[in-house]
Inverse folding.
């Protein structure tokens, strides 16, 4: 299981060297399928039970997203994730989409509605790290 994650991280780093150099604060935190996930640990904000952090997802191949007649392709998403440690919920306050390092129009608005964290998921693990195990 670790080998595919490491492979994705290496491929993404090679595919987007400009992004990697420009964002030296990003650290790899895992993967969701073939998507490498990175976190800007310098951006972590704590406000009561809330934790805000910018996270980046890098896909080895562009993702195609269709809304009605519009088709959007992107390979990178940088999003502000909001975790509520008290209610154990997660939402995305803002998201920017990129293709080959160029910002593109978002395929959909950010998912600002908090959703319960599901045990065993990637986002639940991030919340545990940001909030502690309690």
């Amino acid at each position: 299981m670790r080998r595919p994650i490491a492979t994705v991280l290496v491929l993404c780093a090679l595919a987007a060297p400009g992004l990697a150099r420009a964002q030296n604060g990003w650290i790899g935190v895992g993967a969701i399928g073939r998507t490498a996930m990175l976190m800007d640990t310098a951006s972590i904000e704590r406000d009561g039970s809330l934790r805000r952090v910018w996270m980046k997802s890098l896909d080895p191949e562009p993702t195609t997203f269709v809304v009605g007649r519009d088709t959007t392709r992107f390979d990178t998403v940088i999003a502000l994730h909001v975790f509520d440690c008290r209610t154990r919920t997660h939402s995305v306050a803002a998201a920017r989409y990129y293709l080959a390092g160029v910002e593109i129009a978002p395929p959909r608005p950010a998912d600002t509605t908090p959703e319960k964290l599901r045990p065993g998921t990637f986002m639940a693990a991030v919340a545990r790290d940001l909030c502690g195990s309690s």
Residues 2-131 form a domain with the Lipocalin fold (CATH 2.40.128.710). The radius of gyration is 15 Å. The chain has one domain: 2-131. Residues 1-23 have pLDDT under 50 and may be disordered.
